Amino acid sequence: MTDTLLTHPDNRPPLAFTREQLEWLPWLEPLPEAELTDRHRAGLVDAARARSAYFRLLARDPDTLGARTRTDKDIFYNPDAGLPRAERELSAAATSRYNGCLYCASVHARFAAHFSHRDDDVQRLLDDGVRADLGNAGTPSSPHRSRCRPPRRPSVRRRPHGCARPGWTTWPLPTSSMVPHSSTGPTG
């Protein structure tokens, strides 16, 4: 394993938000699967992740990977608490869209569309950003209009505060203290 930066001269990075599966390429060499120790495997949490170059790269810091993976599993797969899976994925897709991460937005938008069966709404979020009009909020019996809008606090960096569609719960998007800032700034 080396800390030399890898280059991918033939790579053509994505230029737009999409639900297509994007090819991820590491900048550092992932650990070879054969060299993973028990500590690395514990950090992976799921043995199947050892086949993924992405997770083998994160396994360079197995304790952090373990904490990240357990947190991820609790956020997206905990059936005993929190929102339904569709809303969890939509929230992650909106956060990724706002942060400008085409790769994370791709993954979470794919899951949001799959679990919600609202492909057009998820695509609108990707195309138009977090201020996209997602139509009626609440249930069909309460058809008020809703938009993803930033909070009305001009001194605070603008963040969206919520979106909903019929059959979806109205949920708050992360605040500025919860969402990491992208080096390129918001894109939504």
Order of helices and strands: HHHHHHEE
Strand content: under 5%
Provide the residue-averaged pLDDT.
Answer: 77
Kindly, what is the distance between the CA atoms of the first and last residues, rounded to a whole number of angstroms?
A: 38 Å
**Uncertain runs:** 137-188
The side-by-side strand order for the widest beta sheet comes to: 1-2
For the biggest sheet, the summary is: 2 strands, antiparallel
Please outline what is shown here:
The chain is mostly helical. The protein is 37% helix and 4% strand.
Give the arrangement of secondary structure elements.
Elements: H1 38-44, H2 53-58, H3 62-77, H4 85-99, H5 102-116, H6 119-128, E1 133-136, E2 145-147
Antiparallel strand pairs: 1-2
Helix pairs in contact: 1-3, 4-5, 5-6
Question: Can you walk me through this structure?
Answer:
- The protein is mainly alpha-helical and 188 residues long.
- The protein has a domain at 33-77.
- Helices cover 37% and strands 4% of the residues.
- It has helices spanning 38-44, 53-58, 62-77, 85-99, 102-116, 119-128; strands at 133-136, 145-147.
- Helix 5 packs antiparallel against helix 6 (119-128).
- The longest helix is centred in the middle third of the chain and has 16 residues, at 62-77.
